[in-house]
Please model this.
Amino acid sequence: MTILVQRSLLLICITLALYIKISHPVCLFQAIKVNYYNMNFLWTIGGYSSQECLSETTDFRFPMEITKVTQKNVTMIIYEFLQQIFQLFSKNLPVGAWNISKIQKFQNGIHQQIEQLEVCLSEDQSKARNSFQTCILKSTTFRIKKYFQRITNFLKDKKYSHCSWKAVQMELRTCLIIFDSLMKKHTNVRGKELKYLCEYMKLVKKKGIL
Model:
């Protein structure tokens, strides 16, 4: 492949990358990768085993209605969830039982995902929602906040014990799995196409073809 052809392909890839960057499904595709990273860290944070904390299990009543939101609202819903998770993990953690380094990495991963979604949301603000969509979004957001209030109240009642945090850790694993399914449901961009684009961009960068 000649340098001229490589440069032409690079320009095509850059144009495609700039075009898909503002695509809503692509924003979710990027978030899926970060979410997978977050799920792995949440599994490895540490703490007591689930068997030791069976007495602390509870039903936080996850708002399953979020799985029915439209593609237009899904970014905002996931963004709200991540904001709540980030706030939850910013105080009263069981430091003695959990790996501090992994907690910080988990927080950084959540923060990165929030920043990515903020870019999508800033682009969505120019797209008006009808009154029905706005009502649905407000109702769902309210349910999310109530859900996390139940989690916070549970932790307070249990005086932020190691086992109460273990119950929350298990609950949030389920949350992130649901997020993964929800984002994939609303992602229409084919993963292989994006993967090939990313791999080509890495190759170009490595060889310095500009």
